[in-house]
Design goal:
The chain has 407 residues and is mainly alpha-helical. It is built from 21 helices and two strands. The N terminus and C terminus are likely disordered.
């Protein structure tokens, strides 16, 4: 698992990796780098796989095979996360050209078809159960990975395949994130960043690192998130308005978790300014839902993180309106359900249990069968109130209607 492009990580990084993967430090010293990695779990692949097409493909395949429990902790934090980020920045700044490969020819038309299907997958999220969309996206990622390692192509085609793989991995991560599976989300986002950096795409790499940052905001350390956002900003000197808005909101969410209201509001204002400059022609995959409604929902979530639930609900008014909820043209169902979870949390914080129960029922109504990961998150919010009859009825409904498709 050694990578000739990288020297041996310093002992601080190795200690962090060893701690996460429960490798005794004496064994690290005895065996040396990279030999002690054989004692680690497969999680270490993301940090140590070579920054080549084969290494990227190995990471993508590993992500799809992982079976860790969704409640496990994030595996790459602190020094290990800094190590990964430095690698990513160095590679995207001076990527090796995507190699031409022998094999069954992968034509530009084939890559164009994959790119079109990535766009179609995003649109599918607007209307279908996210578990179904995840199954399709996972299959597309497997196909793209197979083409990367077994197909024949020129350098330009190889670069497009890497970017397509990055986009699909990001979509898989978005779905798993919304379903509360933060372990798989972490791997998908980091694999996405690796593929984008290997392709030499600053904007896609920046977007992927921003997604890793958001995950660390609420499932890890918000201070790690701020470092990731700073790195993502440094990659693209002239980001598109939507990418700039995403980066500013990621910063805002991290500051909100750290209870810095001044920095939060400043970052949200910058996000609003960026969106105001949007010409609505940004076709970058993953940004189709970045609009004013999206910004309102992010702002509401930030206010809730600042422990201001009443202010949060002021920015979530469209989610309280029956017609607006069912007719949002840009926000996928799974994102709306997650935003309604913010509404529920705010209403419970204000002691309005009846309103929170109503909002949770509306979220359940969005799906023919609510995904089990999402149902679990709603149920957890109401457990402290389980003795209330209306809450018991809701919990019964969540248990009866959720769907677990084994993904």
């Amino acid at each position: 698992m050694s990578d000739s492009r990288w020297g041996e990580p310093d002992y601080t990084v190795q200690l962090a990796i060893a701690h996460v993967h429960e490798v005794p430090w004496p064994e690290v010293l005895r065996m040396g780098w990279p030999h002690w990695l054989r004692l680690a779990t497969d999680d270490v692949t993301t940090l140590t796989a070579p920054w080549t097409v084969e290494g990227t493909a190995d990471t993508l395949r590993h992500t799809q095979r992982t079976t860790k429990h969704p409640d496990s902790h994030l595996a790459v934090t602190g020094p290990a996360l800094s190590y990964f980020t430095r690698q990513t920045l160095d590679v995207v700044a001076g990527p090796s050209p995507s190699p031409a490969r022998d094999g069954h020819a992968v034509s530009p038309g084939t890559v164009a078809l994959i790119e079109a299907r990535v766009d179609a997958l995003e649109k599918m999220l607007l209307a279908i159960n996210p578990v179904t969309a995840y199954r399709v996206a996972r299959a597309e990622l497997g196909l793209t990975t197979k083409l990367l390692t077994e197909g024949g192509y020129d350098r330009h085609t190889g670069t497009r395949l890497l970017i397509a793989a990055s986009n699909i991995a990001c979509l898989c991560g978005d779905i798993k994130d919304s379903l509360g599976d933060y372990v798989l989300t972490e791997w998908y986002y980091m694999a996405s960043a690796r593929a984008a950096a290997s392709a030499g795409s600053p904007s896609q790499t920046s977007s992927s690192l921003a997604d890793v940052a958001l995950l660390h905001t609420y499932a890890g350390d918000p201070r790690d998130a701020l470092l990731l956002v700073e790195a993502a900003k440094g990659i693209t000197q002239h980001p598109s308005p939507r990418l700039a808005a995403v980066l500013h909101t990621r910063e805002a969410r991290a500051h909100a978790r750290l209870k810095d209201s001044t920095a939060t509001m400043r970052a949200l204002d910058q996000a609003a300014d960026a969106l105001a400059a949007d010409t609505a022609d940004d076709s970058t995959p993953g940004f189709s839902n970045v609009d004013q409604e999206w910004l309102s929902r992010v702002t509401g979530r930030a206010w809730l993180d600042l422990r201001r639930p009443k202010r949060a609900l002021e920015h979530l008014t469209t989610l309280l309106d029956e017609a607006s909820l069912s007719n949002s043209p840009t926000q996928p169902l799974i994102y709306t359900a997650r935003s309604l979870l913010t509404v529920v949390t705010a209403q419970l914080s204000l002691g309005d249990i009846d309103a929170a129960v109503h909002s949770a029922h509306r979220a359940t109504d969005l799906f023919d069968s609510m995904p089990v990961g999402l149902a679990r998150q709603y149920g957890q919010r109401f457990l402290p109130h389980h003795q209330i009859p209306a809450v018991r009825n809701l919990l019964d409904r969540l248990n009866e209607t959720h769907a677990d498709f084994g993904c």
